[in-house]
Amino acid sequence: MTMKNTLKKLIPYALVGVISGATTFGAINYFGVKNSDSEFSYFAPKKNNDAQFASFNMTGVGDDFVKAAKMTVPAVVSIKNFSNRTSQRSDQDLFDLFFGNPFGGNQQRQPQQQQQQEMPRGMGSGVIISPDGYIISNNHVIAGATKLEVQLSNKKTYVANLVGTDPTTDIALLKIEEKGLPYLNFANSDNVEVGQWVLAVGNPMGLNSTVTAGIVSAKGRSIDLLSQQSRTPIENFIQTDAAINPGNSGGALVNPNGELIGINSAISSKTGYYEGYGFAVPANLARKVVEDIKKFGLVQRGFLGVVPLDLSDQRSVAQYNQQKKTNIKTGEGVYLVDIAAKGGAEDAGLRTGDIITKVDNTVVSSYYDLSFAVGSKRPGDQVAVTYLRNGKENTVNVTLKDERGGTSFRSKADLTVTEKIGAEFEPLSEKFKTDYGLNSGVIAKNVVDGLEMSKIGIVDNYIVIEINGKPVNSQKDVEKILDKYQGNVQVKYVDEYGRITTRGFKMP
Predict the structure, then answer these.
(1) Which residues are catalytic, by number?
(2) How many Cα atoms within 13 Å fall on the side-chain side of residue 202?
(3) Could you say which of 267, 299, 331 is where a domain stops?
(4) Which sign does the torsion angle of CA 315, 316, 317, 320 carry?
């Protein structure tokens, strides 16, 4: 059995450590895209009567801020996301689209006549990182876009090409055709200290080139946000109290020297607007992702080949104990539920029941510590893993592999069909086909924001019935039709209201 298949069967336990902490910081919101139909957040508010937020005194630091602002503002851009949207869809329709069960409870609703239009979906920010037009932003800022429009601080506007994206870290790389642009250098974010002053620069609420100041409140924060768009999220946010709001996503977090220390990505808020804390992807992690995308076309990410249980998450541990009739104690570290066949962990001698406490110099207190320490490495890299076995501490060197069990770098040409189009597929039951009058069909699963299936409007649980005019009844059917195929792809699918739509994309 391959590592990928082993982990896939055990993924419910792999995710158990990243799902239950969703409300740790109240409502955690993306703030890069303001939906034109309604305001939205991904989590319900958590009641916290003890939370208090304090202001800060800027006396004596203004001169430093002026210098940093002058360096940063010209290098921060506004990004407008255009997508093919339906012109007639109610707020309730949108709610059902994201949270409803396909065909469940909605059969009484009559399909609406809709017209596809290219419309602004939302706005965010980006940072120019090279004079030849490379721009870093967030994955959620560009997700679903059919066109990306970039505006510089001098009001010049360009259509940007999407070079690549990484939902796992919420980083995207864009390119505009221009030379001699102002840009920011990456700083070593490992040197960032709690308490140091920082500036956040972006385009909140349609206000271009806005600068706010604050301090670094914490490092290494996980807020369980990226599990919304990735099965293997990597979170190691820099937390700051610089005021950031919807539209700041993808903008710059800089030190007083005007060096880029992070990419602003999320806020802690019950309202969707600034209430005290924001979160930025550290520059070191963002730079690694960008370097991989530029060189290989995709991110090269190493895996241990384990199924983890976060011992710091009491709820996850309790659920696991109940399901497996075990008595695992909560605490710090990551308990290994299972070891994938032919993975790096198995090769190094790690076993089920081991508790990982450290990777290289990173102390592993939770799942997110482990995912950051390993996920920021590439296949073939070696890490020193410290673990407990029967109460005794041991350290072993592990050679990381990719999800397929290899150690060599991969390019876009090496991707599978499902990786290229950003979705997996499960067969429909014959009863379901009969009940709904379908002769063929597969259920879309694990649809990746920003990739081809998402771009044409497909989300999880939509039913794909034909590709290029050919019926599909399994993932193998999809792979057979699109393997080595180049050119335009036509997809016929059924949405949650029973409407049949045909849309297309160019095979990447």
Answers:
(1) 140, 170, 249
(2) 39
(3) 299
(4) positive
Here the tokens at position 300 are 């090269």
Residues 6+ apart with CB under 8 A from 120: 36, 80, 81, 82
How many structural domains is the chain composed of?
3
Q: What is the CATH number of the domain that holds 427?
A: 2.30.42.10
| pLDDT tens profile 4-49 | 444 444 433 333 333 222 222 333 444 444 443 333 222 223 333 3
The string of pLDDT tens digits covering residues 241-298 is: 998 888 899 999 999 999 999 999 987 666 666 667 889 999 999 999 999 999 888 8
Q: Please, are residues 29 and 265 in contact by the beta-carbon 8 Å criterion? A: no
Mean pLDDT along residues 90-95: 34
Is residue 389 within 8 Å of 274, Cβ to Cβ?
A: no
Is residue 144 domain-shared with residue 238, that is, in the same domain? yes
Structural domain contains residue 18 = no
Output phi, psi for 362, to 5 deg: -95, 120
Amino acid of residue 67: K
Predicted model pTM = 0.70
Q: Are residues 321 and 258 in the same domain?
A: no
Is residue 72 in some structural domain? yes
The answer to whether 449 and 139 are in contact (CB under 8 A) is yes
Q: Domain of 452?
A: 417-506
Q: Are residues 264 and 374 in the same domain?
A: no
Phi, psi of 86 (to 5 degrees): -80, 135
**Same structural domain, 380 and 442:** no
pLDDT in tens, 348-392: 999 999 999 999 999 999 988 998 899 889 999 999 999 999 999
Structure tokens at 296: 């290989």
- Residue 338 carries which DSSP code? E
- Asked if 390 and 434 sit in the same domain, the reply is no
